[in-house]
Specification:
By secondary structure, this protein is an alpha+beta fold. The protein is 20% helix and 37% strand. It is globular and about 80 Å long. The N and C termini lie far apart (67 Å).
Length: 142
């Protein structure tokens, strides 16, 4: 390869490497995030767009003095180990683990869990894990 051809190829490669990421981002509907394919939300259901109604956890907050009760419900059927909600996880406003509740599809008839927090205020995040349709995230203010 001649020196001029080598330089021309190098410049063309450098230019292509600058343009290609821009083209890839322009092709998608939404910006790429590190968590986009780890969990799903109402706004970003990804490949499970038809599953939002039965997989997105709902959060009910009740306060009494310094006690906050968080009730998480996922309106999902439990068909034994074939198809069920595996667990709910509760996270604090900084996405730090607070607690979790595991479901037993041989005993539980609904995916409902309740958590009690003392002296807590701010956002809470609920994760609901389906054995077939991945992890779903929702939030509420406590």
């Amino acid at each position: 390869m001649e020196r001029r051809d080598f330089i021309r190829l190098s410049v063309a490669s450098a230019g292509a490497s600058l343009i290609t990421p821009t083209l890839a981002l322009a092709a998608g509907d939404e910006p790429a995030t590190a968590s986009r394919d780890i969990y799903y939300t109402k706004e970003a259901p990804g490949r499970w767009a038809g599953k939002v109604a039965t997989h997105l956890p709902t959060i009910e907050i009740t306060k009494a003095e310094d006690i906050t009760t968080v009730k998480i419900v996922t309106p999902h059927e439990i068909k034994g180990y074939e198809h069920y909600i595996v667990k709910h996880v509760l996270l604090d406003k900084n996405y730090k683990f607070i607690d979790e509740h595991l479901f037993d599809p041989t005993k539980d008839s609904a995916a409902v869990s309740t958590f009690t927090l003392k002296n807590y205020s701010g956002a809470v995040y609920a994760l609901s894990l389906c054995n077939k349709h991945d992890l779903w995230l929702n939030s509420a203010d406590a």
